[in-house]
Amino acid sequence: xxxxxxxxxxxxxxxxxxxxxxxxxxxxxxxxxxxxxxxxxxxxxxxxxxxxxxxxxxxxxxxxxxxxxxxxxxxxxxxxxxxxxxxxxxxxxxxxxxxxxxxxxxxxxxxxxxxxxxxx
Length: 120
Known about the structure:
By secondary structure, this protein is of the alpha+beta class. It contains three helices and seven strands.
């Protein structure tokens, strides 16, 4: 599983997301989709437009599944558990892929961390 985010409007490509760009994430961190985007399914993926930024984003199938889940607040552990049911790979690999994808989405303003809420 991997999540691919493409961004259009600038010619700069997306590279590795620096850890300093996003806050420390925990399995109990609660995430929700940022409201400043409109999105639509396109094949197995999702395309979206940032209403404030004017950027166009595209998510592959894995990223689309995460995006669909965070339309309402979800913890990282809930996302990982749901993806484990879909992909035949070890949980550690799924966790690492989810963390990478979530950090990428956070750095582009696609997701927000719900402050003061954590899964019990």
